[in-house]
């Protein structure tokens, strides 16, 4: 799966505008029809499709993980905390598809979630990606903060993980090229997963893990 084909406009909708429209009877009918036609959230498309069993034919390399702390809001909780940011969020995400929450799940309506992180806490590789991808619709940057749905992490998951240090292995830059990233194991691919824990009111801790897998020697031999 090529990440560039998914990073197009129409990825994320987390606006009060959408919630307000859904509340009216006429818009609800339209929304129900549109909901049927919506593609799966991008977060669901990139959620890990592997486990310990499917990893058995592969060796694991450069495994590492990073943990982050952030604020998280349901759309119903945006006011008054995000009252100042809400107008720009409304413009940025207008008519964009929601990227999904954790594991790409979309509960729809005001139960959808939005993360707020200080830019200083966002890893360098993600900040650089945001500078390059000026047309992306995952992340709304406002002053010193960035807003995004949890599902927006998954398409660029390796960028959230620091290079590992393993004796005898060259791991520098292994997570930099998203062309090598896959949501399922294959020879030479980078795979990863995200776990999270709610740590308090509107607070979340999430851990992003990545590794490179290689086919075990002779696994295809008779």
From TrEMBL:
Sorted UniProt keywords: Signal
Endpoints of the signal sequence: 1-18
Record's protein name: Uncharacterized protein
Lineage: Eukaryota, Fungi, Dikarya, Ascomycota, Pezizomycotina
């Amino acid at each position: 799966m090529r990440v560039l084909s998914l990073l197009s406009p129409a990825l994320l909708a987390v606006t009060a505008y959408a919630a307000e429209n859904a509340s009216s009877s006429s818009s609800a009918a339209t929304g129900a029809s549109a909901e049927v036609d919506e593609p799966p959230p991008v977060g669901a498309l990139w959620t890990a499709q592997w486990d310990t069993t499917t990893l058995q034919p592969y060796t694991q390399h450069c495994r590492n993980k990073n943990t982050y702390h952030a604020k998280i809001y349901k759309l119903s909780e945006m006011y008054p905390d995000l009252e100042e940011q809400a107008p720009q969020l409304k413009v940025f995400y207008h008519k964009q598809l929601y990227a999904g929450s954790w594991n790409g799940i979309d509960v729809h309506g005001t139960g959808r979630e939005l993360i707020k992180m200080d830019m200083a806490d966002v890893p360098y590789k993600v900040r650089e990606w945001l500078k390059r991808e000026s047309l992306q619709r995952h992340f709304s940057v406002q002053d010193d903060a960035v807003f995004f749905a949890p599902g927006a992490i998954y398409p660029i998951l390796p960028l959230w993980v620091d290079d590992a240090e393993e004796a005898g292995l060259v791991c520098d830059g292994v997570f930099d090229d998203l062309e090598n990233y896959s949501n399922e194991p294959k020879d030479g691919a980078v795979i990863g997963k995200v776990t999270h824990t709610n740590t308090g009111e509107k607070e979340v801790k999430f851990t992003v893990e990545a590794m490179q897998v290689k086919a075990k020697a002779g696994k295809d031999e008779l």
